Amino acid sequence: MEDTKLDLRAKEILRTNDRGGYTVPTAGLYPYQWNWDSAFVALGFAAFDIDRAWTEVGSLLAGQWPDGMVPHIIFQRVDDSYFPGPDQWGTTTSPPTSGITQPPVAATIVRRLHDLEPAKGRRRAEAALVALDRWHEWFATARDPAGRGLVAIIHPWESGRDNLPDWDRPLSFVDTSKVGAYERRDTQHVAADQRPHQHEYDRYLALVAFGRDNHWDPAAIAAGSPFWVADVGVNAILLRAERDLAALAGALGDSDIADRATRRAERLQDGLASLWSDAAGGYVSLDLRREEHATTLSAGAFLPLYAGGVPADRAERLIPTLRHWLDAVRYGVPSFDPTDPQFDPIRYWRGPIWAVVNWMIAEGLAGAGHADLADRIRVDTRALIRQSGFYESFSPIDGRGCGGKDFSWTAAIWLAMTAPAPVAAVA
Ligand code: GLC
């Protein structure tokens, strides 16, 4: 298909997946509003309908909990095609939500929306600013009670990179003996060899039950969650988001929020440095219960470049690694090290490419002075979509589309990578 037709198709996908003020990732497989999907969807809408982009941000932040958390799923309308649904999470909000969060990319996107049309977006940017500051503050307290500059995730789904090999070992300590019988819905939509294994799903559900039994109380979860891991992706994305929040607050004249975000960013910058592993040769996740770094690299290893502030000697190790990865596959960037034996080109987050991760990596590379590599990744992303369509993910080996089709955030990234965007500097 020609690019102009793909532009139209991308817009059509966003319109079709629009359920009235919020957008589902794809019909069937993911029939609700997902957190970081909505943020990227807003970026896509911004290419042709800035009002609709702000509406998406508004509906996402309307799901914010009283304690500041912005949930990973908002169950806007009951739909039995997805499991685990509202009753499994046992939360008390209306509409119901899941009990966990997702990568906080929203502040970065909100800053973009504001910068596109500052006067027009001012009122909505001010409202979003307050909600985002509360969400980031929640991360700093609920998920970093010890103040070490690393926020924990309590479930692999909070990483947004659900099935990474990084989670295998921390998950191995999760007791599944109380998980009763249940019926998966994901494998009714997508081939099982592209989805997590049953033993992983059992652990996912055991962690949901843990949170539910503890009424999603942050203190109880911090004290006892069997899964308590500093994901390099979430920490890098939050650091970038804090920097963008500080810049947005500055532009809107809110010095209190600007100061708070800057302080939180400084702490995260120190924490992120501690995710560097010489043994793995990059930034990795850290199991905070056992003080164990992951031993393999994922695409998350490159996200500190997106966060900004990576020391030169570390960047000098990351860039050749990325080039090496790109030499090993036809398309980049694989979600997991393509030279590692655990690499699987089509199974969820163990190899396939996600357009949103490519967008962040390309932003980071461009900001760090590697425009050539950033371009290569954008070119690959567009080539994948041209070849296979707007799939959820793609095989780095042959470019085939995996997972759900007509996927909102893939359409959004197509539009974001083709539309001119304001340059947002990070430190
Ligand atoms: C999967 C992905 C997650 C995403 C969701 C909806 O669960 O792992 O990152 O938000 O699908 O697209």
Automatic annotation (TrEMBL):
Task: State the UniProt keywords alphabetically.
Answer: Glycosidase, Hydrolase
User: Which SUPFAM superfamilies does its entry note?
Assistant: Six-hairpin glycosidases (SSF48208)
Please provide, alphabetically and separated by semicolons, the GO molecular function terms listed in this UniProt record. Answer: Glc3Man9GlcNAc2 oligosaccharide glucosidase activity
The superkingdom listed in its UniProt entry is: Bacteria
Which Pfam families has this protein been placed in?
Answer: MGH1-like_GH (PF22422)
One GO BP annotation is: oligosaccharide metabolic process
Show the InterPro entries listed in the entry: 6-hairpin_glycosidase_sf, 6hp_glycosidase-like_sf, Glycoside_hydrolase_63, MGH1-like_GH
> Start and end of every Mannosylglycerate hydrolase MGH1-like glycoside hydrolase domain?
30-410
Identify its protein family. Belongs to the glycosyl hydrolase 63 family.
Q: PANTHER family, alphabetically?
A: MANNOSYL-OLIGOSACCHARIDE GLUCOSIDASE
This protein is called: Trehalase
Specify the species: Bauldia litoralis
